[in-house]
Design goal:
heterodimer; A: 98 residues; alpha+beta; 5-stranded antiparallel sheet; 3 helices; 5 strands; disordered C terminus; B: 367 residues; alpha/beta; 5-stranded parallel sheet; binds iron/sulfur cluster
Chain lengths: 98, 367
C-alpha cells in the first residue's frame, strides 16, 4: 500500500468534476486522479500512490524504478487481487517451518 | 559483498558502499522512518553492507503496523454489520484485532472488499445506494491526499451512503516523540521520500535544529537508500545536522501545493495512538468539522469496544528500535506471518515480517 509507482499519462478527461487520467504502469493500465498534478501532460511520467498522482518524474528514473519493481514482484503486489495475495501470504510463508 | 549484483547498477552500489566505509570513523545509529525503506533494507541486505558499528534502526513508519488496535476493532465491528460494504487496502486484511481480522470477517459473510484506490470505494457507494459503504482511511501523509479528495468528492456529489474510518498518522511528531524518549539511541533520520513528495521538507529543519540530528530525505530503492546513508554518515562525521534532500527526482522542497491545500480543508490535527507505542500528541489527522458527517465513527456507534493486545507481542519495542524482531521471544514461534500476534508481522513493510521473510534462515543458523 505504501508503494508509489511511476506511470505514463496516456490520456486525460474530466470525470464528475475531477481531472482523471489513464496511466500506463509498464503494461498495467489504471485510472488515476490528476487533481494534484493538474498540469501533467500526455506522455509525461507521474508518481502514483493509491490512484493519485502526487509528483512528476523524469522518464529515465521512471523506467528504472518500474524495472526494479517488476523484478521484485512489487507491481503484482500493488495491482494484483488483494484477497488472493492475502490468502497466498497466509499459506506460502509456512511449509518450510522455522 | 554477495548482495551487490542484485542492485540495478552494481558499480554505483559498490562506489556508494566504498564511500560510506571510507567516511566512517566510528559507530553511528540512524533510523529509517518508513516501512518501505525497512523492507528494501532487509530485502537487499543493505544493513549488512555497512561498516561494523553503523546500525540501521527500523522506525515506526509502517501505517498498517501502527494503526491502533481500537481502530482495527472498530473496523471489524463495522465490517461485520449487515448492509455495510467495508472497503480497505489489501494489507489491512490480516492485521490482528483483539479477536479476529478482516479476512475472517469476510469468511464469516461480511462484505469486505479490497480496493486499489479510495475512489473505487466511492464508486461502489454510488453504484449501491442501498448499502452503507465505508472506506478504511489509514496511512501517512502520502496516502492522506487520496482520502481527502475522496471525501471532498463524496460531499460535493452528495454521496450520503459513504463514510471514512480515519486513522492518519504524521511523521514529524513521531520523530519528535522518538527523540524525546529517554531510551533513544537515534542519531540521524532517513526521512520518507514520498511523505515529502506531498508535504515538502519545511517541517524538518526545526527538528534537525532542536534535536541536533541530520535528516536526509531518502527514496526507497536500494541505491537511493545507500545514497541517503552516505549523506547521513558525512553529516554525522562532520558534526553537521541539516536537512538534505537526497531524493530530488520526486521531492520538491515546497511539496505538492494542491494536495496540501486539500489536506488543510478536509483534516485537522489530533492526538493519535500508535499501536505498540502509545499516544503521540498532535500526530494524526481526523476529519474536520466540515466533513464530520462522513466520519464512520460517528455514523456507526463503535465507541464502547474493549480491546486486548497479545501479551507476548513486543512490537512497540520493535517500532521504537529498542529490539530487533528476532529478539522477541515469540518471533518465528508463536508469531509467524500465518499467525501474526502483532501488526508488524503482517505487512510486508513491518519489520517482523521483513525479518521473517528474508532473514529467518540466517537467524536459525546463528542460533
Ligand atoms: S515477532 Fe510477533 S509477537 Fe514479536 S514483536 Fe513481532 S509481531 Fe509482536
Amino acid at each position: 500500500m505504501c508503494l508509489a509507482v511511476p506511470g505514463r499519462v496516456l490520456s486525460t478527461a474530466e470525470v464528475d468534476g475531477a481531472l482523471m487520467a489513464q496511466v500506463d504502469f509498464g503494461g498495467v493500465r489504471k485510472e488515476v486522479c490528476l487533481q494534484y498534478i493538474p498540469d501533467a501532460e500526455i506522455g509525461e511520467y507521474v508518481v502514483v500512490h493509491v490512484g493519485f498522482a502526487i509528483q512528476r518524474l523524469d522518464e529515465e528514473s521512471a523506467w528504472r524504478t518500474l524495472a526494479n519493481f517488476e523484478k521484485l514482484g512489487l507491481l503484482e503486489e500493488e495491482f494484483g487481487d488483494g484477497f488472493e495475495l492475502a490468502a497466498r501470504q497466509r499459506e506460502s510463508v509456512e511449509g518450510t517451518g522455522l | 559483498m554477495k548482495y551487490l549484483d542484485e542492485f540495478s547498477d552494481p558499480a554505483l552500489a559498490k562506489r556508494l558502499v566504498d564511500e560510506i566505509h571510507a567516511a566512517t570513523t566510528r559507530p553511528w545509529a540512524m533510523m529509517e522512518v518508513c516501512g518501505g525503506q525497512t523492507h528494501s533494507i532487509i530485502r537487499h541486505g543493505i544493513d549488512q553492507l555497512l561498516p561494523d558499528g553503523v546500525e540501521m534502526i527500523h522506525g515506526p513508519g509502517c501505517p498498517v503496523c501502527v494503526t491502533p488496535l481500537e481502530v482495527i476493532d472498530r473496523a471489524l465491528a463495522i465490517a461485520a454489520r449487515p448492509g455495510v460494504v467495508f472497503c480497505s487496502f489489501g494489507d489491512m486484511l490480516r492485521v490482528p484485532g483483539s479477536g479476529q481480522d478482516l479476512f475472517s470477517v469476510k469468511s464469516a459473510g461480511g462484505d469486505v472488499r479490497v480496493v486499489y484506490s479510495p475512489l473505487d470505494a466511492l464508486k461502489i457507494a454510488r453504484d449501491n445506494p442501498d448499502k452503507e459503504v465505508v472506506f478504511f482511511g489509514i496511512g501517512f501523509e502520502t496516502t492522506a491526499p487520496a482520502n481527502a479528495m475522496t471525501v471532498h468528492q463524496a460531499r460535493r456529489l452528495g454521496v450520503r451512503n459513504f463514510s471514512l474510518l480515519v486513522s492518519h498518522v504524521l511523521v514529524p511528531p513521531a520523530i519528535a516523540a522518538i527523540m524525546e524518549s529517554p531510551t533513544c539511541r537515534v542519531q540521524a533520520f532517513l526521512a520518507a521520500g514520498h511523505v515529502c513528495s506531498v508535504m515538502g521538507t519545511s517541517e524538518y529543519p526545526p527538528l534537525a535544529e532542536k534535536y541536533r540530528v541530520p535528516v536526509v530525505v531518502t527514496g526507497f530503492e536500494p541505491l537511493d537508500i545507500l545514497e541517503g546513508v552516505r549523506r547521513t554518515i558525512l553529516q554525522l562525521e562532520q558534526g553537521r545536522h541539516e536537512v538534505e534532500n537526497a531524493y530530488p527526482r520526486a521531492v520538491r522542497d515546497e511539496g505538492n501545493l494542491p494536495a496540501m491545500e486539500m489536506l488543510r480543508d478536509v483534516f485537522e490535527v489530533t492526538d493519535r495512538t500508535w499501536r505498540g507505542i502509545g499516544v503521540i500528541p498532535g500526530s494524526g489527522w481526523r476529519l474536520s468539522e466540515k466533513y464530520a458527517e462522513f466520519d464512520a465513527e460517528r455514523r456507526f456507534d463503535v465507541a464502547g469496544i474493549r480491546t486486548a493486545e497479545s501479551s507476548l507481542c513486543r512490537s512497540g519495542d520493535v517500532l521504537q528500535g529498542l529490539i530487533k524482531p528476532h529478539e522477541c521471544a515469540a518471533f518465528g514461534k508463536e508469531c509467524t506471518p500465518r499467525n501474526p500476534l502483532g501488526a508488524t508481522m503482517v505487512s510486508s513493510e513491518g519489520a517482523c515480517a521483513a525479518y521473517f521473510t528474508y532473514r529467518r534462515l540466517e537467524l536459525v543458523d546463528a542460533k
